[in-house]
Write a structure and sequence with these properties.
heterodimer; A: mainly beta; 6-stranded mixed beta sheet; 5-stranded antiparallel beta sheet; B: mainly beta
């Protein structure tokens, strides 16, 4: 059973702080890693994808990947109240389940003014 | 480019009825996946279709079925509805190109909220 684990949260940070969201995965063959943001009552929205070890930055968001440790994280700098949402980590699969994404349960982030 | 379109947005059905949900993927995307989301269980994978073939299936009873048409549009059907089927049903589309399937970014539709009473 391929698993994706996220820090359970909820995570609460003040406005302007750095929010750090973590995710580990069990399938060493995974090649693609994604972060989705889901506001309450809405569908998940893709905010970051990362395929290679290291950091990938997009505006206030930085995704970090370490395949050796099977670890992927998302940093949100200068957090804003509008960042308050549930963040889902997703990992692709290879082999017999090629084409399927595995999702973590999500980490709920609250940014307070 | 239009996004993923799911219809209807909301449905209320009674136990024992059946329901069909529709998903139109992003133009050019050949993979469509379906998920069930409930507060207690998170995102649960139902099935994935690629070029009209079911390639992956989650751990749901046979009452849940789906299909994909030649234009990549997909439908899922739930027969003999139970109260526990009340959930947000999400469809995600993805462009699967090349031998290595490197681009697997999946984009979600707005979902269909099904309430079974």
């Amino acid at each position: 059973q391929k698993e994706v684990e996220q820090n359970s949260g909820p995570l609460s940070v003040p406005e302007g702080a750095i929010a750090s969201l973590n995710c580990t995965y069990s399938d060493r063959g995974s090649q693609s890693f994604f972060w989705y943001r889901q506001y309450s009552g809405k569908s998940p929205e893709l905010i970051m994808s990362i395929y290679s070890n290291g950091d990938k930055e997009d505006g206030r968001f930085t995704a970090q990947l370490n395949k050796a440790s099977q670890y992927v994280s998302l940093l949100i700098r200068d957090s804003q109240p509008s960042d308050s949402a549930t963040y889902l980590c997703a990992v692709d699969s290879r082999g017999s389940t090629l084409g399927r994404l595995y999702f973590g349960r999500g980490t709920q982030l609250t940014v307070w003014p | 480019k239009a996004g993923v379109t799911q219809t209807p947005r909301y449905l209320i059905k009674t136990r024992g009825q059946q329901v069909t949900l529709s998903c139109s993927p992003i133009s050019g995307h050949r993979s469509v996946s379906w998920y069930q989301q409930t507060p207690g269980q998170g995102l649960q994978f139902l099935f994935e279709y690629f070029s009209e073939t079911q390639r992956n299936k989650g751990n749901f009873p046979g009452r849940f079925s789906g299909r994909q048409f030649s234009n990549s549009r997909s439908e899922m059907n739930v027969s003999t509805l139970e109260l526990g089927d009340s959930a947000l049903y999400l469809c995600a589309s993805s462009e699967k190109g090349g031998a290595l399937f490197l681009n697997t970014e999946a984009f979600f539709g707005q979902g269909t909220r099904l309430t079974v009473v």
